[in-house]
Amino acid sequence: MLAKKYRFHGHGALKFLFGHGKTYRFKNMSLRIAKNNRREHSRASVVVSKKVLKAAPKRNQVRRRFYELLRLNWQNIQPGYDILVSIYDRNVLDVGYEQLAQEVQAALHQTNLWVDHSK
Fold first, then answer.
1. What range does the domain containing 78 cover?
2. Torsion angle of the four alpha carbons 2, 3, 9, 15, in this order, in degrees rounded to the nearest 10
């Protein structure tokens, strides 16, 4: 799970993101990002609606998978951004881990949030 200081707290915390964020759509998800100059660290949230998966345990499973993918790649995400990952494809539950990791990394590259520290 992503550390508490890297997550949003309460519904009001997302207001800034919905007002100032830019949305990028991908195969299984969309990313809404906004530069937040008030923050030293980036924050992330994962949303899986009931329209996508009716059962709460399945929604939680998808949410946990994406939080874990973000956690493992957190050192490569630019600091000072608010990030909202919205899942809109129910098939994401059946996608393998490696493919899902590649999709998340590709999405972060396309939104210019990825910083490669290996160079």
1. 4-110
2. -60
Q: Give mean pLDDT, residues 100-107.
A: 94
Percent of the chain with pLDDT over 90: 76
**Is a pLDDT exceeding 80 seen at residue 119?**
no
Q: How many domains does the chain have?
A: 1
Say whether pLDDT at 50 is over 80: yes
CA–CA dist 45, 85 (Å, integer): 6
Evaluate whether residue 117 is within a structural domain: no
Position 118 in a domain: no
User: CA 67 from chain center: how many Å?
Assistant: 7
Assigned domain for 115 exists: no
Q: Read off the CATH number of the domain in which 9 is found.
A: 3.30.230.10
Cα torsion 102, 103, 109, 111 to 10°: value is -170
